[in-house]
Amino acid sequence: MNENILVNIDLNNEYDYLNYQADAFIKLKSNTLKTTLYSFIKEIIIENKSDLYFKDLKLIFDTNTELIKINDINISLITPKSIVKFSENISINFNVKDLYFLSECIPLILNVKLVNLENDILNEVNLPYSLFPLNESNSISSNLSLLASFVTPNDPNITNLIYKATKELELLRSSNPNFIGYQANDIDSVRLEMCAVYNALVKENIAYLNPPSSFNKFQRVRLPNTVLSTKLGTCLDLSILYCSILEVLGISPILVIIEGHAFAGAFLSEDRFIENVINDVGKIYNYSTLGNMKIELVETTSFTLGKNVSFNEANESARKHLENYVKNFTALNISNLHHSFVKPIPSYEVINENKVDVYFKNNLNHEFVNKKTDGDGLIYERTAKDNNKFIYWRKKLLDLSLKNKLINFSYGNNIAEVVIDSIQNLFSKISENNVIKVFPLNLKLSKNEFITENVKNDYLYLIEKNIYPISIDDKTYIKLIRKANSIMEETGSNALYLALGLLTFTLKNSVKSFNAPILLIPIKSKLRKSLDAFEIEVDIDNLLLNTTVFEFIKLNSGISFDDIYDINKKIITETNINSIFNFIRSRTSKSCSLLLDEKKAFISNFTFSNQILWNDLNLRKDELLKNDFIKRLVKETPYQNEEDEILDDTKLTDLAIPLGADSSQIKAIKDSINNVSFVLDGPPGTGKSQTIVNMIVNALYHHKSVLFVAQKMAALEVVKKRIDDIKLGDFCLEIHSNKATKRHVLEQIEQALNYGRLQSPIELKDVEEKLLNKKEYLNKLIEKLNSNLHGISLHDALTKYFSLKEFEFKNSDEYEDALKLSKENKESIEEIIETIKEIESARKEYKDEYFYPYKLEKKEINLNELKDNLQELKLIINEYKNSIYELSNLINDDITLNKNNIETLINILNTFKDHEVSFNNIYTTEFIENISNNYKVINLGIKLNSLLNDILKYYRLDILKEDVTLFKKELLDHSNGYFKRHKIFKNQLKTLKSLQISNKKLKISFKNYVNLLNKIEEAVNLISLMNGINNNLIKVFPVLKEDINYNYSSLKDTLDSSYLFINLFNKIFIKDDNYLIHFNKFKNFYNLLKQKDYTGLITSINDYHNQIINLENKLTYLYGYNSKLLRFDISNTYLENYISLLNNQIENSKDIYNVNLINSLLDKLIENKFYEPLITLYRRGDISLFTLHQRYLLSYYKTIISTYFNDPYFIEFNGLLFNEAIKKYNEYLDEYNALLIKETASRVTKNYPLDSIEYAKSTNVYKLLKLIKNGGKNTSIRNILKDYEDIIRNITPIFFMSPLSAAQYLSIDNKKFDIVIFDEASQIKTCEALGAISRGNSLIIAGDPEQMPPSNFFKTNVDNYQDEFLNDDTCEDLESLLDDALTLNMKRNRLLWHYRSESESLIKFSNNYFYNHSLLTFPSPNNENKIFFKYLPLGVNDNGVNRVEAFEIVKEVKRRFSDENLSKLSIGIITFNIKQQELIEDLIEDLFAQYPSFYKKNEENKDKIFVKNLENVQGDERDVILFSIGYSKNKYNRLNNFFGPLSLEKGERRLNVAITRSRKEMIIYSSIKGNDIDVDKVKNNGAKVLKDFLKYAELGGNYLISEYDETVNYEEGVEKSIANDLIKLGYDLDLNIGDSKFKINIAIKGINNEYLLGIILDSKNYLNTLTCRDRNYVQPHILDRLNWKILRIYTLDYYKNKDEVIADILRAIKTPFDLSINKTNPVNLNFEKEVITPYQNKIEYMKFVPNVKYKYESVIEDVTYNRLSMLLSEYIDYEAPISKQVLYARFKELFDISRTGTRFERIFEKHLMPVLNNYQIKNECFDSFYYPLNFDENLYQIYRSSTSDQRDISFVSSVEIRNALKDILKYQNDLELNEVIKMLANLFNLKVINNNVSNKLEKLINFVVRKYNETFEIYENKIKLKKP
């Protein structure tokens, strides 16, 4: 096993069925495969501690049982020093059935092996675990909420018990023995039903079993069926049984667990706690007391055998348990838990001996059902109450419970009753101008109290002025309107209605009557008064009948109201209101009494929108099933998605993307136009809205229609505003929320019509070509740098090169040599690298081996012999060491005794022993530098000695002073004869006699004398020469100055020894301040040797030295020893180290074989031509194996780079030119985008109606224009969209709607949209989206699964909101359209670039916590944290309100509005609940009232201040977010760990929404700190996330959540090299700035830690960016927006000329930053109208006029026979197609005759006959026509009309009529026949249109339509063009 790679597994070692079930449902509900708290394996961690890469590994699991099987996990790569975690996609298969029926605990072992490809085991772990029976689950002790699983309402045994309980209820309540639960809206009724169940259980005779001392562990929990069958149960078993029965009956049970005991309870109304688990005993106790009763408690042991305790006594007994506020208190909210992941355990039933069925009855909203499979395993899924999806959806839409105000209308102080005289009169006044006014009276009515008649009579005078008094005061009314506005914003539906008429109904056997409104009119009200009254706009066109109450009555009494729906379909007026009321009265019966009050009117919020959606769904089932997505939902058929192809930058043409778009957005845009349905997964701030805008514009560009749907008005408006900004907004039709009015719809259509047809920009193609060329140029760099021609890309080679630069060879020749070797031997590179890796995997570094100086060639050696040799060498070295130390003591100097110094000392010692050494000045530099000169002097001196010795044979050396040159000249003068020379010779001898050595006569011949003179002369010259160069030698040998004839030969030996000594000396000592001290000590040592005899010591040292050499040579011979490889030879303790090494070698002699292995690998490197000097350095220990590897790689990468640089592209590349190209690319792209907008507008308007055409009255254009003028009188929006669909879809192909408006206004018959886009789909319930989905072909669902799910918050809380009590629907997070799409495995396109936050600190937490660090975020240059935490410890949460926080927030708002600059920043305020929201809203209003200038500033801001809560803030964003947490500790300094909706399952998603709303900064106002939250006491994740977020805010954004940290390896090549260059120049900088994968490679700091300059390199990040637009447009624009000063640097430039690049950086740093440089030039978006002349195919009829005339007689005489035939031919040629009658008329005109007979006709025929063969003759409607032979009808598109002479329509050819008809219908679309006749007559200038002409035209038209039936069709007396 490999100790460097570790495997750790977090195993749930006590596992059971309950764990499996909880784990399965959490994953199902979360739509994730991530492990959970209940997973069998929670996490697998593999840690690689080594520096090695591990590839292709596998984890193999053996569970030791058939109950659990775990699939192998394949691991492709584990990098060095890294940790790999697995918490997702761990595939475990359970034998669920056997696990369910497990009866005993089974101890087991989990074996896990980590193996490689060869199945070698790298690591292995064995973990013990146990499998437990489900009723002995140890998980319950740590998580009591799992007990809710034992509450099994589906158990078939309970059915019998319910029957018995019904009998008991009959005794208690004879009037209605049915269990009606909360429908009676009466807590006593609920208690009565609980009592009936209790009484039934009393009669079951169940015996009580005492529980063990502690049932938190090991207590067996019995299921209800076991208790009922065995008649035995503990307090816990009995409580679970009681809860199970209550839940079946629709009563929400509570299971209470205290120390040693358990009992039950239930909520007495539909309102229940929002928490799943309640730990506050006081809360349960307070709400179970009589004065405040919302809960009833029951002591369940009281109904056991032998006890006679009444239900009331059992209640009191249970309450007493809580009176002392017990410890260890837990109450389980069973219904809430069953709605979460804690589902009931499946019930089972024995069908026969061989089969046990496990199943669930469908009696909960979300529960288990058995789905048959091929194996024994059970598959569980979420299902509805009814397996029929449509029934389920309809039930979800139509709330027929008594909590619906449309059924059970409770009026009172928060409802505005309106004083009216009669409904008819009110209706009449509303119909006049759609506006009324209301006047608040502040009557303070109690619940269900009406305004009295007296009060009404007092205010009747106001009604005459159209002012209607209302019962409530101003403040309550404003609150009502504010709530309505909020609902409108969040749901897209109007909730504020004027309710007319009140229906009171009483069902048979009901003790209570209910009220419901009858008619509902949508209204809108202003928030500010005008003259003491509020103005209300009444939308009379959308008056609705309250069909909800009629459906409820029908369901509960059988009374049908179907006929009233027919009345409702008509336009309701004051005349037929009575018909409606009378019909309702007529339906009263014994099963339900009905009473009407026609004088009642109210203003209130109602949730009526679902009724419309229900109607739409109810009527269109078959149509809905035609939609692929809906069909898949119903059939539960998932999508089979193909693997996503990588976005190809070269294939992104023909996309109209006018706004900036990154590659993740472009991919979605591309899919959207290809009819692909998908999920657009848009985390916060990732440009989802902008992507939708681009998708819409692209759809417009491609002539596609789009239905864009969102519930929130804000979501629609954001998209619409952006489309408006690019001037395409008028092609979109908004029909949602406040814009869903007839007036507004018609105004939009009229606005669009005003465009006319727009010109296409002619320059588009040219700019597109320029753009593509620039893109190709820019992409070429990426292509080149990424190309892999030599096994590695150039970019990677450059990166590696710069990262290894520090290992570069110092000797360039050495480097070039290595480079050359790499080039010549590329084929061995891989083998070399593999060999190095083999060496790396060895046990130690080579230098750490004891036998590293050995290269063993023998496979086997005698280890004892080796030890003996080593021992001998060790002993000699030890003696040698002692002698050396003795020598060192003699010298008395501090000498480093390394190997070289010791050998040098020995050489000095031998020098001193055998030679004389002069110490005079030999230490000087002058002496060393004059070595050659000194030897020259010595050699001259030796020659001088010879000359002087010859002279001294005759003369003393004083003779050198004589002028012997003169003597020679005189003696050797050739003018003298023999005798004279001889005489001179004698005289000279006499002259020199005094200088002779002896007094005797000198005997010397003339010849010898001359030679002597020459030697004297030469000696004089030598002395002169030596005197000039021997100064240095004289300093060494001063005697030379005194003795001219000193023995120079003896000096040479001394000079040699002196030079040898000083050179040896200088090897030991450097010339420093102590140099002379060392020198003098050696001088003294020399003198000491001369004085004493140390021959013995010197001999011993030499002997030991030689013996060591001999023994080392022996080791070399025997074992391949190489002493040169010793690594401690420079050590001061060389000999000690040598001895130590020898000792280790003796002790570990067998290790010699290890070195042999490494040496063989090193030899293998050499064989592969590896650079051998490197191996030598490695063997010596001068470099590590790592350095060896790096140096080799450096040379290898350098080789690769030089090979790539054979390509001229890399040599010629210039970064400045490349940056200029990027600039041009951006300019072209901006221009191209602007032109695309114009082209899109042109394409949309191609089919627009023309101003220059008068449209026929029957055309839709005419009718629509007329409708616009009269304001759409007598029609509705739905009818307008249906009747004028074609033209409206042409004019506005894009519809903006809510799900409600789509269902309300789009008819069943409307044609489908090409694309339906849903925004914020995570908040839309599927059932509400179906109608809109069915109205399109492809579907795009945009949303974020990590944000808000849909809830009934705005449907169920139209009036009130409570923090503690929420009913079923309020606290339920419903399945969303997005959830269902993901469940169906719909394709996902995820947006990954985050744009919103100007500081990464604002998104960092969310990115880590919710998005797994996947979002690409961008750092800001100010390098500041923008999340601020304001701790307010004095804040107190008083019933949902924290005033301290509210006041602090308003104080901050005031500060900001008081500052000129800060007031320009938009503000958003977020709270946890409505109460805090309303308090802050009131305070803000007071602030604005006090400071009107603040109000004005707010109104002037583009984004006004908002105050919202967690439930309704999604989709909003502001510059600054102020977040009020609200929660605080209580007076006991304890914090209740319940945080409202956040504590729900997935409640953390609400927090995710809230904390991602800010653009610039966020301030958290909190009365608690993160550490105050005890996460161990909460089950859901919301509180944990809140805790971490508060800590993150407290620590200024520096709190890192380790669980979500991601380790990323960044390149440190050129970045590090450039950084080092800048650091040397004194700059402070940071590398790789950014919290995501996007990095600013180098950021240079200025003052205040702000960054002066950001440097972006062509790093891997840059190269791997998918598109040219991403790299060169989107990213730079984002950085510009963040005010970065950016310089782009290219590795090629830096490699070629680093100094120039550094100079560029320095210039950029010093250049002042001009923000205006980054601003994009505004583009011209002015559309130019296309001038279109209609009926361009109409031309003037040109009549042929011959230049001759003939007399009739000439024809008779046949004089002109040939000529006339030719003229007839010319007539035909000129006027064809021409009818025979017209040709005959022309023939007559030749002769100027008007009347002719048969004779003339025969003449005409006679002349015509010869030419007929040249023409086609066609018999048409009224005549024959002549056409040229080559006539092509398809090419002939004109028709002729005469302005001077009216053509007879009978004689117009069918092809011309065809062309005229096409021209007419081209612009008019389909026309009625009579209008076609008129238009044809007009085109052909027919002045009079009588019956005859009309009949002819009709006949002609019919003929043409029949003839050209592929072009025209007639239907319903209308003619239209067929579509090609």
Describe the structure.
The strands form 15 sheets. Strands 21, 22, 23, 24, 25, 26, 27 and 28 form an eight-stranded mixed β-sheet that branches. Strands 31-32-30-33-34-29-36 form a seven-stranded parallel β-sheet, sandwiched between helices. A five-stranded mixed β-sheet has the order 2-10-9-4-6. With 1924 residues, the protein is α/β, with parallel strands linked by helices. The longest helix is centred in the middle third of the chain and has 30 residues, at 1215-1244. Helices cover 44% and strands 15% of the residues. α11 runs antiparallel to α19 (609-619), α28 packs across α45 and α33 runs antiparallel to α36 (1006-1029).
Map the helices and strands:
Elements: E1 5-11, E2 14-16, H1 17-30, E3 41-48, E4 54-62, E5 68-70, E6 73-78, E7 82-86, E8 92-94, H2 96-100, E9 106-115, E10 121-132, H3 139-142, H4 156-172, H5 187-202, E11 207-208, H6 224-230, E12 232-233, H7 235-248, E13 253-258, E14 261-267, E15 271-273, E16 277-278, H8 281-286, E17 295-298, H9 311-322, E18 330-333, H10 334-339, E19 347-352, E20 355-359, H11 389-397, E21 416-417, H12 423-433, E22 435-440, H13 453-458, H14 460-463, E23 467-470, H15 474-491, E24 496-507, E25 514-525, E26 534-538, E27 544-545, H16 547-557, H17 562-569, H18 577-586, E28 592-605, H19 609-619, H20 621-625, H21 628-635, H22 663-673, E29 678-681, H23 688-701, E30 706-709, H24 713-725, E31 732-735, H25 742-753, H26 764-786, H27 794-803, H28 812-824, H29 829-840, H30 863-891, H31 899-914, H32 925-929, H33 931-951, H34 964-971, H35 978-991, H36 1006-1029, H37 1031-1036, H38 1039-1042, H39 1048-1068, H40 1075-1091, H41 1095-1119, H42 1134-1147, H43 1152-1167, H44 1172-1180, H45 1185-1204, H46 1208-1212, H47 1215-1244, H48 1260-1269, H49 1277-1283, ...
Parallel strand pairs: 2-10, 11-12, 22-23, 29-34, 29-36, 30-32, 30-33, 31-32, 33-34, 37-43, 40-41, 40-42, 42-43, 46-47, 48-52
Antiparallel strand pairs: 1-3, 3-7, 4-6, 4-9, 5-8, 9-10, 13-14, 13-18, 14-17, 15-35, 16-18, 19-20, 21-28, 22-26, 24-25, 24-28, 25-26, 25-27, 38-39, 44-45, 45-46, 49-51, 50-51, 53-55, 54-55
Helix pairs in contact: 4-5, 11-19, 19-51, 19-52, 22-23, 23-24, 23-47, 26-47, 27-45, 28-45, 29-43, 29-45, 30-41, 30-42, 31-39, 31-41, 33-36, 33-39, 34-36, 44-45, 51-52, 57-58, 58-59, 71-72, 71-73, 72-73
